[in-house]
Design brief:
Helix content is about 45%, strand content about 25%. The chain is of the alpha+beta class and about 525 residues long. Helix 2 runs antiparallel to helix 3.
Length: about 525
Amino acid sequence: MNRTTKNLIILSVILVAALAAVASMTLKGDRGSAGIDAGSSFTVERGLLEINLTETGTIKSRDQFVVKSEVEGRTSIIYVIDEGVQVKKGDLLIELDSSGLQDRLVDQQIKVENTEADFVSAVENLEVVKIQSQSNIAKASLEDQFAQEDKIKYLEGEWPKTLMETETDLKLSQEDFNRATDEFDWSKKLYNEKYLSESEYRADELALKRAELQVALANEKLSLLNEFTHTRKLTELDADIAQKSLALERVNRESSSDLAQAQARKRAREAELNRQKGKLTKMEDQISKTKMYAPADGMVVYATSSEFSWRGDTQPLDEGQEVRERQELIHLPTADSMMVVIRVHESALGKVKLGQEVQINIDALPDSSYTGKVTKIAPLPDATSVFMNPDLKVYNTQIMIDGVFPKIRTGMSCKATILVDEYEDAYSVPLQAVVGRGGQTVVYVIENNQAVPRPVETGLDNSAMVHILSGLSDGDRVLLTPPLGGDMTSGSRSNSRTAKGPSVPSSTQKTQSSRSPGAGMPSGKRP
């Protein structure tokens, strides 16, 4: 295709668009002059109005056991039971690979044995330290006691004896000196009278000098004993007592320190042994948890089949697949009664109350309809939805199905229609007929073949019809396609709607493909 042909095609498209715009403006002008088509209006009449809320949901068991992986980290599946199988309590559901844990178990057993040997050594060492400490303390106590007894023995035994001996020697020396003096005097007289020889005289004189020296030596010995020997001995004994006392205290402290160290070593080895034994027990427990058994009778339902996971764990369980710790693997329903779990948008949350009647239609059972009641509304929005889209706030709501139906199974998709309110005699108009103008909620009523805005007071809606509390009466015709802005009678139009919309609940802003446009509308009044 050459460039000239392309230009011709573009000019043709622009020409067709211009002609369509001119035709549209001509038709609108004709409508304003000839009147409003009756097919684009709705006649207001009193009638039955049901306010309901329809949401899609999933069937779940009212009570169920959840089988989770309790093995730390990630591990692979080596066996998994088929989904949908009826199992008995104690049947094997899943077996995980435990080869790595078995190897670690052997290593841990070796560590436990080594730690236990260290603990036994620490216990024996503590007993040895206790005995040695007792022996050292006893020896130091005896030495301290002996030092004190030595001083008592000296003061009460040795010192009096030594003093007495020295004094006795002094007295004997004095007696010998007196006797020698008397003998010398006699010998001197006899020597002078020539009755004694000179040699005998000299002998008595020498004996006198010897006795005099003995007295002097005895006096010096006594003086030395009192002034020096006794004082020094007392000092030595007191010093020995002090040293023995300090030695006893040192031994006590050393014994306490050695004992504390031995006890601390024993406690440390004991704590390490308990820690290693705890690891061993935990590892054995982990190995035992690689096999998961049915906690009760029921039908096997894979967790990945019952609900969507934002982690991406949507593929069915199979051998070789890796699973993580705390991951839900199998749901085991334990009750015949079922419930429906739906997610209600925050804009429609005000319509839902506990105890409301619900009509349930299951996709897999199109020929049957079931009833139930709202039993639980989550206080907080669903975390998964918030994670996927922070602007989307939905609240999980549980609906209990009345009765027991064996055909209903976990995981089936369904639609739940909640009956919010019912008015037997009420005015209602299609939702698209209500607009906001100048801070008011208005509808365009056809008067004299012209659309005139009229303020109205609205109530709840069912996503198709809105309850009109005041402002309309029987026979009023409202325009289903109100103008974008302004008043049709004045011919003025605005490019956009007023910032404030109609004062109807914000749930009307939420659209769902599962809702029927005419749901809840009185018979014969569907737009």
